[in-house]
């Protein structure tokens, strides 16, 4: 996918994640925040060498930039991260299976969701928490603002948005409550398994 970029459709209806994330939150988060990142990215790349580059290439090429290219990174990163976040969530969650389940057991035992919750709560200010695969191991990373582990070539399996706009309407300042609700009820392990297998990193978006 190269520019002009479009707002990819959500993989479920706006009220599908209730009661854990309300349609009200998704309406603003997708319909205002995510949409604005897409529109701003299109304005910023227009007439530049990034206009005909795929989104992932733009993210990687601008990840450490400042100035105008830093602005491009902030919006390109946020478009990629939000597409990835929507696919990381599902109203039809079930336990991980197959190779992914084996690796979770090997690398985390039964502590994975607790550790994701800790990392998400510990991220100071706006950012993201990620389950990633590096080398042969699963790991948890947190990133600030628009950063993504993908920018340095790491395979992302799942992410959770911990910007205040992701939870404030439903949980106010209680980020840990939002994290527990999402981690216990909404994670899309099928998406994580496909990413681990090197499959469709952006699922329906491409
Ligand atoms: Mn967000």
Structure, explained:
It is built from 8 helices and 3 strands, in the order αααααβββααα. The protein is mostly helical and 206 residues long. It folds into 2 domains: 23-88, Helix Hairpins; 98-198, minor pseudopilin epsh fold (3-Layer(bab) Sandwich). Strands 2-1-3 form a 3-stranded antiparallel β-sheet. Helix 1 runs antiparallel to helix 3. The protein is globular. The model is unreliable at 200-206 (pLDDT under 50). The protein binds manganese (II) ion. Manganese (II) ion binds at residues 29, 33, 82, 161, 163, 165-166.
Précis, in short:
The protein has helices at 23-45, 55-62, 67-88, 98-108, 112-122, 168-171, 175-185, 189-196; strands spanning 127-134, 137-144, 155-161.
Cofactors, ions, other ligands = manganese (II) ion
Biggest sheet strand order reads 2-1-3
**Which sheet architecture does the biggest sheet show?**
3 strands, antiparallel
Stated plainly, the CATH topology of the largest domain is called minor pseudopilin epsh fold
Shape: globular
Kindly provide the radius of gyration, computed on alpha-carbon positions and rounded to a whole number of angstroms: 16 Å
Order of helices and strands: HHHHHEEEHHH
CATH superfamily of the largest domain: Iron/manganese superoxide dismutase, C-terminal domain
Structural class: mainly alpha
**Range of helix content:** 40-55%
- Which spans have pLDDT < 50 for at least 5 consecutive residues? 200-206
Indicate the mean pLDDT: 94
Total beta strand runs? 3
* Domain count: 2
Gap between N and C termini, in Å? Answer: 7 Å
- Give the class-level CATH name of the largest domain: Alpha Beta
CATH architecture tag of the largest domain: 3-Layer(bab) Sandwich
Strand content: 5-15%
Alpha plus pi helix count = 8
């Amino acid at each position: 996918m190269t520019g002009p970029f479009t707002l990819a459709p959500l993989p479920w209806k706006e009220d599908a994640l209730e009661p854990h994330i309300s349609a009200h939150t998704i309406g603003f988060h997708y319909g205002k925040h995510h949409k604005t990142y897409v529109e701003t990215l299109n304005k910023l790349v227009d007439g530049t060498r990034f206009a005909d580059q795929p989104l992932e290439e733009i993210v990687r090429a601008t990840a450490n930039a400042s100035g105008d290219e830093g602005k491009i990174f902030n919006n390109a990163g946020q478009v990629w991260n939000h597409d990835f976040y929507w696919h990381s969530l599902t109203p039809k969650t079930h336990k991980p299976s197959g190779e992914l389940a084996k690796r979770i057991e090997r690398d985390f035992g039964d502590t994975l969701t607790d550790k994701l919750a800790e990392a998400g709560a510990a991220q100071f200010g706006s950012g993201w928490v990620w389950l990633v695969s590096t080398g042969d191991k699963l790991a948890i990373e947190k990133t600030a603002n628009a950063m993504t582990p993908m920018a340095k070539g790491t395979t992302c399996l799942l992410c959770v948005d911990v910007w205040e706009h992701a939870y404030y309407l439903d949980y106010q300042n209680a980020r840990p409550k939002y994290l527990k609700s999402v981690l216990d009820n909404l994670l899309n392990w099928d998406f994580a398994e496909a990413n681990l297998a090197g499959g469709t990193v952006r699922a329906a978006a491409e």
